[in-house]
Amino acid sequence: MDFKFSEAELKIQDIARKFAENEVEPYAEEIDKKSIFPEDTFNKMVSCGFTGIGTPVEYGGSGGDDIAKIIVVSEIAKKCAATAAILSIHTIFSDVIKTFGNKEQKEFYLPQVSNGGKKGAFALTEPNAGSDAAAVKTTAISDGDDYIINGAKCFITGGAHADYMVVFASTDLTKGVKGLSAIVVPKGTEGFSIGKTEDKMGIRGSETSELIFDNCRVPKSNLVGKEGQGFKIAMVALDSARIGVAAQAFGIAEGALDHAVKYMKERVQFGKPLTALQGLNWYIADMKTRIECAKWMTYRAACLKRDGEKFTMDAAIAKYNAANTAMFVTNLALQIHGGYGYMKEYPLERMFRDAKITEIYEGTSEIHKLVISRETLK
User: Fold this and answer.
1) Which domain holds residue 176?
2) What CATH number does residue 125 fall under?
3) CA distance 170 to 159
4) Is 190 inside any structural domain?
5) pTM to 2 decimals?
6) 3-state DSSP assignment of residue 63
7) Residue 53, SS3 per DSSP
8) Is 129 helix (H, G, I), strand (E, B) or coil?
9) Checking DSSP bridges between strand 146-157 and strand 208-219, what pairing results, if any?
10) Of the residues 212, 289, 295, 302, which has the fewest C-beta atoms closer than 10 A?
11) What is the Cα gyration radius of the chain?
12) Which ranges constitute the DSSP H helices of 35-65?
């Protein structure tokens, strides 16, 4: 494995870094305080081609692969985890259509959500089907050329703003998990409404909503893949999404480390800058070491995916480790800042709150331990 970025990847990194500094960081505090979806920033990400990374040019995308996607997501996460989450989770929809959609679906949806300004979402979680994805109770009953969807989803990132979402529903409850199917539901479909929008601890600029389906009628042409293939589609999508969350997590950690280093160079105590204190220097060493490990585990998983190899365990390792790293690093960075770190006027307080979600969504750390142990014991 080559640990060097290509010239093209270095160029993407430079563009993403400047974008994060100029277009993301200035609004990070505001969208967190007010829980505002950064619509203007999203549109600028569209203009930059970030929303189309990983989608082939022939389908209106920007080309590139998961390496490029990680680069962009992590650079944005350094400045605003909420904006990075919006981009990362938006691309799950594209991944599902790109991997499992038919030719007509790819030609219709991918140009719109890649560089056409439309937003995508992934609707799997329900009140009683979180870590246990097989417990989905939403139904999609056949009615001629349509499905009639009834049920509810919760904790859906981007649900209130999405133009299209992949909804997982049972087309045959008697088959259990083998009856689960994936169906695209467009915004504005009769019988589909947005319920409660959650008031969250972190990534507050990335809204999380309840979705309600009350005799929601959609054409069977919106079925992605085949009936009964939904659980497989969901698991493959989650493997990919976990790489994105790992990128968010180590990006948050890198941003926190940058703040800690800057503060230690500027802050004077006992007549010396904090960099003269050996104990705090050891904090920096621990933080940097964990970040580098998390970063390259994430890139390894992305390389395996890119090359068409099995990456389920590597994605789980990357996400589990990067999430732990984000919590570890933001905690120490806040500690280095002392009382100032605890205050909302400093970004560490926000970054500490943002880091926690990386241990929870797209599979909790406990679920990732199960995946890792299961794959190891095979």
Assistant:
1) 121-228
2) 2.40.110.10
3) 20
4) yes
5) 0.95
6) strand
7) strand
8) strand
9) antiparallel
10) 289
11) 21
12) 39-48
